[in-house]
């Protein structure tokens, strides 16, 4: 399923990288508070938190710093290999230990890739039996991804299985 050694210094679709922040926006938009910088010096930012409704032009500049939640997880690169070096943003998804799935029958379904939003990953070296969750895809700047953080790379055959799984997730109904 994996290459025995990292293939080279390029990143590939299906590469698994060590802990990376996964950003989750709050449930209610009003809780996503834009951060209005008031002073920036020596890399530190002083700011005020405002509700979006308190700012008639909260996103008038196109982008704004906001307060959001995040957690750290191993990730898998989902973007096509040919797109990784040519695009500013890359799609990634978090990886979770399979043991977090409750019930043997549910874990077996993930292991057999019968759950369309989860892609099974067997253990390798220090990497435990896991799955990728396609429902929590994040877009990250390519510059944030570092090949030195690679845990493993999918073999060509399993990269093909990943592409089939992504097709099944995004392009249902999936016909055999």
Provide a descriptive summary of the structure in words.
This protein is an alpha+beta fold and 176 residues long. The protein has three helices and ten strands, in the order βββββαβαββββα.
Q: Which structural class is indicated by helix and strand composition?
A: alpha+beta
Estimated share of beta-strand residues: 25-35%
How large is the radius of gyration? 19 Å
So what's the overall shape?
Answer: globular
Q: Tell me about the biggest sheet?
A: 7 strands, antiparallel
The chain-level mean pLDDT equals: 85
The helicity comes to: 10-25%
Low-confidence stretches: none
Supply database-style keywords.
alpha+beta; globular; 33% strand; 3 helices; 176 residues; 7-stranded antiparallel beta sheet; 15% helix; single chain
Summarize the helices and strands and which ones pair or pack:
Blueprint: E1 16-24, E2 34-41, E3 44-49, E4 65-66, E5 69-77, H1 81-84, E6 89-97, H2 104-111, E7 118-121, E8 130-133, E9 138-141, E10 150-152, H3 156-170
Antiparallel strand pairs: 1-5, 1-10, 2-3, 2-4, 5-6, 6-8, 6-9, 7-8
Summarize, please.
This protein is of the alpha+beta class. 15% of the residues lie in helices and 33% in strands.
């Amino acid at each position: 399923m994996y290459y025995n050694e990292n293939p080279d210094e390029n990143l590939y679709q299906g590469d698994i990288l060590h802990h990376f922040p996964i950003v989750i926006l709050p449930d209610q938009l009003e809780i996503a508070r834009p951060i209005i910088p008031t002073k920036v010096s020596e890399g530190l930012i002083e700011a005020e938190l405002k509700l979006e409704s308190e700012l008639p032009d909260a996103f008038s500049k196109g982008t704004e710093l906001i307060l959001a939640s995040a957690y750290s997880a191993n990730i898998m690169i989902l973007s096509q290999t040919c797109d990784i070096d040519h695009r500013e943003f890359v799609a990634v998804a978090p990886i979770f230990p399979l043991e977090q799935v409750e019930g043997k029958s549910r874990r077996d379904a993930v292991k057999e890739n019968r759950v369309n939003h989860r892609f099974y990953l067997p253990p390798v070296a220090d990497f435990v039996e896991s799955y990728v969750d396609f429902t929590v895809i994040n877009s990250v700047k390519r510059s944030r991804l570092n090949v030195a953080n690679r845990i493993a790379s999918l073999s060509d055959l399993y990269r093909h299985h990943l592409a089939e799984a992504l097709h099944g997730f995004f392009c249902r109904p999936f016909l055999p």
